[in-house]
Write a structure and sequence with these properties.
By secondary structure, the chain is mainly alpha-helical. It contains 10 helices and 7 strands.
């Protein structure tokens, strides 16, 4: 759907001397033609329309070409330039406050988006006037598309969108005597660096599942193997070192005898 553009329609327009003349001679149809012509002009980028295409407007309005030309030419409501395009000076004047405000808001939006998407820094922005910002916007290739939407500051739409690559599901292979352990090639290689004796822990999980059935509902066998391995490590007896460099099991009764011997040697 095409954007609808604003233009002022004063509530006392019907009392204007020129409009009264239109209404007197052409009735409310003339009044309607006048405002439909303003709508057409507002819809143009330069607020002008070629007189050679007035017949097309008449067809669109559902009236005669002569009546449309009469409204344009006879009541001093419109002007025709050297290019044979008609326009309304009043319409352009009345639109200025709106257009200036809109342009100011546009520049503010452009400035904010240039900063947001890291085309300029806040410090650079502070040193740039509105003309500089607009020029930067143009240099980056964000070409103006008028008020139809091509220039409504959507810099984000110009940022390259990375196309999401659909992940290829990795194939899992079965391991263990009973084929209960499922690992991808990558997981299998990673497991080698994360646990001591990879095959041992694959075997433990595989046999446990075979023995207990569906008690173990394991989604990630690599993580399960690492978890079981770490849990086993935590249960192992702690080791202490002595001055000889020999590691002695704290849980062994012989440790006291060895400690006593070294105590006698180094006293």
């Amino acid at each position: 759907m095409k954007d609808a553009y604003y233009f002022p329609h004063f509530c006392n327009a019907r009392h204007d001397r020129k409009i009264k003349r239109v209404r007197k001679e052409l009735g409310v149809e003339g009044y309607g033609i006048f405002f439909m012509l303003l709508e057409v002009l507002r819809d143009q980028t330069d607020f002008k329309f070629p007189t050679e295409d007035i017949d097309l407007l008449a067809d669109e309005f559902g009236t005669s070409e002569q009546k449309v030309r009469t409204v344009i030419s006879n009541y001093d409501l419109f002007e025709v330039d050297e290019n044979e395009e008609f326009f309304s000076s009043n319409l352009i004047v009345f639109l200025q406050p709106y257009l200036v405000t809109k342009k100011r808001n546009k520049i503010s939006g452009i400035r904010g988006n240039l900063i947001k998407y890291k085309y300029i820094t806040k410090e650079e922005s502070n040193s740039m006037n509105n003309e500089d910002v607009a020029l930067k916007y143009q240099e980056l290739g964000f070409l103006s598309g008028g008020e139809s939407g091509g220039d409504h500051l959507a810099i984000a739409s110009k940022v390259k969108k990375v196309k999401k690559v659909k992940k290829v599901k990795e194939i899992k292979h079965t391991y263990g005597e009973y084929n209960h352990v499922l690992l991808t090639d990558k997981q299998y290689e990673q497991l080698k660096t994360e646990v001591d004796d990879r095959e041992k822990w694959i075997k433990i999980i595989d046999e446990s599942i075979e023995e207990k059935g569906n008690v173990y509902k394991i989604k990630n066998f690599k993580l399960a193997a690492v978890k079981w391995y770490k849990r086993d490590q935590e249960k192992q007896p702690k080791k202490n070192s002595n001055t000889s460099g020999v590691f002695v099991d704290d849980s062994s009764p012989i440790k006291d005898i060895i400690h006593q011997e070294y105590k006698e040697l180094y006293k």
